[in-house]
Amino acid sequence: MEKISEKISMLILSSLLLSACGDDGGDDSDSNREVSNGETPEIAVSDKPVINLSGVVTLVEYDEIVEQEGAVGAASVRAQSSNLQYSNSNWLGIDENGDTIFPLANIRDLKVNWTQLSPDHTKLYISVTSDRDEDWDYRNKASAIGLKNNYVYEEEYRTWETLMPLIGPLLSDELDFPLTSDEFSELYPDGRIYLMSRGNSACENGIETVWNSCVNYLEYTFDDDDYVTIEFAPIYNRIVDIIADDYMYCPVIELDRITGDIDCLGGTEEVSHRVSIFGYDFDIPVRRSRLVENEINLFAYENIRRGLKPLQFDDEGNIYLAGSLYHEGDDYWDTEGQNILRITVDGEIEELRSFDSYRINDAYIALGNGDVVTRMDGSNDGGLFMLQDGSLLNISGGWNGFTADTGSTLIVGGNLVVSLPGGGFSQVPLSWNSTDSNVQVSEWGVFEDYYVTDEGKVYGCRYLEVRQENGNYQRGQYIVQVLPYAPFSEFAIEDCNFGTMSQGHRVEARTVSIGNLGTTQVLDITRLTDNATYTIFEAEDYASVARYSITSIAYGSNTVIFSADRTSAPVGTVIGEIDIQKLSQGLPESEYLSLRDVGSSIAASNSVRNIAPLPIIEPGTTAAAPKITDVFFNESVYSHVGFEFSEFMNKESVMAAMTFTDQDSMDVTYIPFWGYKNLYLIPDLNGLGDANDDGVIGSDDYMPFQAGQTYNVSFDTNAAMDVAGRLMATNPKPNAVHSFNFPAE
Fold this sequence. Notes:
Strand order of the largest sheet: 8-7-18-19-15-9
Number of helices: 7
Structural class: mainly beta
Distance between the termini: 105 Å
Strand content: 35-45%
Number of strands: 52
Radius of gyration: 31 Å
Largest sheet: 6 strands, mixed
Shape: globular
């Protein structure tokens, strides 16, 4: 009897937490059996991480839930004696050796929407939702705790469950017992578990259910002779403590990459949720995020700037998110809320503005100075707006595309737009003129779109008229390098589709028809300077080689990363990396291209939705003291000058340390444009204002550099520093003083 009592005591927590929920679960009987004097089970949670990204250099997000089969368990994925999985997600990691890592434990049916590193790379933010079953079973699967929330709608009582995943640790690995009631049944087919109640109106020694009944103790039987009865209250209270202390509902997880600690973005608040244990419902306190994220359109963010996500940072470290706050008395929230939230460095959450009759159209960007820019629809109008100190400024009434630098400057409809310190904004044209007599700038509008590459160059797509061999001009869309200026290099594309551009190359998937085999896809890598193209996966006989469908392309740290579904036998997913620098050096494909199989059953029907390299392009550390390594200047181009720094710079310190004057030592007004390590200065000698007093700041007010003039730019090396805090003065050759002379015409 004693041995059975010990074993059953160890079973209690798992049986409670992991049994199915329902209205007909437990027996409600009035037994007269004595309560045993057995010790209350020691219930503990694992101290191993729920999310472990150690060794992960690339995160892969799939369209659907994936199994952990074939992946190394980086987090504490506990071995199960049944087929029940506790660590399904649509998220896998790739380590430096190319091995697939399953970085999650104890979070079932998790769908990752996006991931974002903090600027200092110490925290990773993960937007998550729970995957809903087709039969509308909303029960949260984390630890199989059936938590519910309740609300009254149209006087009808309904129960619903939040779609935010329940994040929590495993039970302690030191516990040696089955983790599910199914496992209990497998081991003890004749065993039964009861929740027992007695007629105790005050419920002094038991736990009251939501239906005002009282549960006093549990009874576990193996046969007619062997049973154990244990008090319910200590077990229930320990369950409540574990859930309150170690579990939380989160739409956006904040993971500390140094300590492994997990919290919800913006913190949590305690709310009452309902847990069902063997058919008895109890209200218990659970931590829930203070905010909820709006609907997500990742493609719209990518159009603003490659790699941009719904969670963003300004230069002071404040966090921005399109979302809504819970308000006291609210039982649910509108996921199409109109607010943009700012979480300050002190942890305060501010609703920047409820947009009244306007609603966010698709995406937004938080600029380095704290201004927010977004497209919005209004009851009578719409367009591109800037949210500045509580005011809503209309930048453009049309639906032109807009792009942002890595600082606080926008490109909108062919103009650079910057907010002014005293309020409002100004704009100057971002121009490109051909020096080739065979190329004419078309009168058909301005640039259609822009692309900022990972090396800080800015490309634009616009209509040009190019002389053909027959002497006639043909109009088409072409890519040109705008910042720093480069002469025309014929490179026609359709619909301003930039593909993925890195280190002077463009990478794009192209579909090829292969007869009876249908279609396959190849990767075209085109060098922009001379239009030379390399093609990966191309073959003369596609029947004898592997065929692929390209699913995702990303870049970072001079490497293009892509995923592809292998559609020929054996089907599967491959992850490829292209070293652009090696490709540029003319090395063979075996040197610049690497392919590796994910190595599981994932890929046959599950495509990669997104690839996120870690770290992102802009690091938080530097290799050496900063200096200026290159200067961008063309004496016939009056629109800009620029500098390439050896390291990623602290932008605020650089701008404060810079002096920009003309030959008479008068300050030159300008708009800065940051492209990662590159800084471009676009001057306006008319002062960035309404020079012609027509009430509109536009191209008519703009004056670029002038012929026959000299302009000087210098940086105080004791003030300008990189992102790691190294001053330019610590470099023996900072190259910090420059003069630009434009010859007289």
